[in-house]
Amino acid sequence: MCLLGIAPRTVAAISIPTFTVFAAASLTEAFTVLGKIFETQDPNARVTFNFAGSQQLALQIEQGAQADLFASADDRWMIYLQKRGLLMTTPVEFVRNRLVVIYPRSNPGQIAGLQDLARPGVKLVIETDAVPAGHYFRQVLAKLAKAPGVGADYAQRVLHNVVSEEDNVKAAVAKVQLGEADAGVVYRSDVTAPVEERVQILSIPDPYNVIATYPMAIPKGAAFPATATQFARMVLSPLGQQILRGYNLLPAP
To answer: Cβ of 242: how many Cβ atoms within 10 Å?
Structure first.
């Protein structure tokens, strides 16, 4: 069944109950706004969110947690649920993202370029390989290791500087803001206006970056699939896509 193939209930027939969206941590700000808009459009609508690493959310769903919609930061964990027969609908890609490096404005690690991440003594915080951002970054390292003048052992030297591997991108952002690391790898969407007041951004050139793809689907056992479908439609609508772009997310094809 297609994600958008579930016919929404009419408000006249039944009040829309509270439904729960499991969403990747990098969607926190954008989805919180979308949730408020959704509730404004229908006064009877009530949305609750569970934001965490996509791997954590997928495992919670596998273990029986109640979720009406799952929005992952990569295909891997959506496929994980799909292979186990835990999805009611076919996943639909709704947005994309890109990785960046952030470092404190005081720049204690004297970060000027991506090569500095491999310099001895630099303290780097990333995400575990199970986290989409961490998995993407390891692909970035493999690409950069082939770049001219970087060195085949670049990835090894960068990973040697990792002082912490986090379970979600927000934790990495927090450690950089607190000065517990010289640099961190996060999504561009995580560098919100308040965060940007405390950190600087080092972009990863497109030839070496990995564009993150975000799919969403309704899990099996969802209590309110019709309401989840209405929310998904809003996310895919011009208004929803505009909100997502406002948080530095990229439109899906």
So the answer is: 10
Assess contact for 72 and 135: CB atoms under 8 A. no
State the first-to-last Cα distance of the chain, in angstroms, to the nearest integer.
21
**Which domains does the chain possess?**
3-96+213-251 (3.40.190.10), 97-211 (3.40.190.10)
Contact predicate 200/164, CB 8 Å: no
| The two three-digit tokens of residue 164, written as one number | 């912490």
- Indicate the SS3 state at residue 104: strand
Region of poorest pLDDT, from 38-52, 105-119, 201-215: 38-52
pLDDT exceeds 70 at position 14: no
Question: Chain-wide mean pLDDT for the chain?
Answer: 93
Check: CB of residue 155 under 8 Å from CB of residue 185: no
Q: Is the pLDDT of residue 16 over 90?
A: no
